Structures are given as structure tokens and as C-alpha cells.
Amino acid sequence: MEQKEHYIQLCFEQAKLGAGFVSPNPMVGAILVKEGRIIGKGYHQQYGKSHAEPNAIASATESVEGATLYCSLEPCCHSNKLTPPCTDLIIKSKISKVIISNLDPNPEVSGRGLEILSSAGIEIEHGVLAAEGAKLNRIFFKYITTKRPFLHLKLAQTLDGRIATETGDSKWITDESARTIVHQMRFHYDAVMVGRGTLNADNPSLDIRLIDNNEKIPYRIVVGNPEKMNWDHKILADSNTDKTVIINLHTSLKVQTKKLISDRKITLIESDSMSDALQVLGEMKISSILLEGGAILATSMIEEGFVDRISTFIAPKIIGNGPSSISGTNFEKMAEAIELKEVEVKSIGNQVLIEGSF
Predict the structure, then answer these.
(1) Which residues are designated catalytic?
(2) Average of pLDDT values for 228-254?
(3) Fewest 10 Å CB contacts: which of 14, 82, 83, 89?
(4) Dihedral (CA of 327, 330, 332, 334) sign
């Protein structure tokens, strides 16, 4: 590995320390190098707080004048945010060279940051480990360019593709090692989404319990007719209903139902299409969603092209009859099948985890 790739890789490791805290901003890490020595490092720690570059400069053990700044993403250059432009501080600090992985796809930056630095006489370079950098921030890249959330579908199924028995029993298909991974996933996403059927059948908490979580509560999104929901269920009646969102498609609601939703401080999105509903979620700064069920909602999301990534836990169990994890797609030829990209296969306890992107 070349030296600059090594330092950019260290930037990625720094950036990952902000996972779960910086949304809807990107994860960004920075390293300061002077005469072959690392003299400072930093990362974007929390949304609304200082960015990676100022944190790296503040951490420097000596003067940063003449140093090289390595950064996983192009430094910001606009004032339309909660923190000042990083380009101003870089120039003021007399850093001589800036090397980055990715240009920022945000139209307010997108190359302008490097142009400003170059105009100030700073040597610049970009594109180092660009594919890896784009993978790191694929959620941000999707959100900032489309204004819609990145959608990650999580499935848990038996070896024969079932998500429950004929009676609806689904606890538990996977063991605790797999469920711990799911809670780690929840921590990295802004929201967890289920369909009305899953809500009524499972009464899920959709919280983060199996890992140290610093009390983060993701949005809980339910898709379906609220007049057919059990209003005693947890996410509709707990102390965090202000983090609950109901998406109601194509159905006119009674006045008393709307009042109940409003009284409980639940957000109601009424829309004629899931596409428009996702746009509203994006306007709420929900940049990422972990979709956890059920089969009808998962299938429709895939068919409409809204799913960006999928993770499927396959348990070594066979139950025969029961609902399938995906239903409704009717491809007649194998050549028509949806084939995932960037596929990864892992062993998690007794389960196999297959992940890929669309």
C-alpha cells in the first residue's frame, strides 16, 4: 500500500468512529502528516458539531504550517450549515497540501472546496481509494443526491425461505448472535420500518437493546392503515411516540383517528404513493431506514426499486409451510431474476448472512 493510501485508510478508520451519531451528515475522518509523522487526527463526532478537519487541526501536537491534510471527503466550503466552512480554517492554518478520497456530492460543495483551496495555493489531490470511500458513505451519497432515505432491507428466514410458521409464530428464527447484529444495524440507521401486519403480530419495540447504545432512539416507522392498528402496542403508546411515524397510503381516515395520532405526538404522513412518502421522510432529515418486515412491504419496496441494500439471515431450520420472506414477484425466467452486487457472505453463529446491493 502506498503511503497516501495508508493515510486515507486511517482517515476511514477515524470516520467510522462517528457512525450512528452524525446523520444526516457524512462520516468523515482526517489525518495531519508533517515530515512523515502523524501530528493530528480527528473525525466528525456528532451532527451539528465540529467537522473532522478542525478536530484534526485542534489535536495537532505541533504547528500544522506546511503539513499535509488527508481527509476521507472533500472539505466543506459553504455556510449553509451549523459550522463554519472547513476550507477557511485550512487556508488560515497554512496547510500546504490536501489529499482526499471522494469529492463531496453535495451540490453546494462538489469540487468547489478543492477549487477554493487550490486558488489559495494549496496543492490538492483526490480519488485515493475512492471506491472504498464511496462505500463508507453510501448512505450520505444516496441521501444528498436524491433527498430520499437509503433503504436497507433486513430479512431473517429459515433454510426453506420461511419467515414464520403457518400459525404466525416467528420467535425466534435466528439466535441471539444474529439479533445482536440487527441491533448494531439499527444503531447505524435513522429509522426502523415495519408494516402494519408485523406491528400487530409481533408488537415490536424497534429499539436498540443488545448493544451499548448511548440511549439512541431511532424513528419507528409503520406503513399501513392506522385504523387497523392495535393502539396498545409499544411504539404507539410508549414515552417516545414523538419518534413514531405512520405512513398511510390511499386511505381516508376518520377525524377521531387523526386526533388520536395527534394527541400522541405521532407523525402522520398521508400520501398516494410510497415515493412521495419517502420524500417527506427525507425532508424530516431521515437519511437512512432499516426495513425489517413484513413480506408484503418488503416485496413492494423491492418491486418499486426503493431498496438499496439487503441483508438476509438464513437459519439452519426447516418448517415447511409458512409465509415466504419475499412474495409476489413472478419472474418466469431465471434470467429475469434480480441479482445482487457487492455480495458478502458471513457466518453469524449458526446462521449464514448474505448481504448485497441492488
Answers:
(1) 53
(2) 94
(3) 82
(4) negative
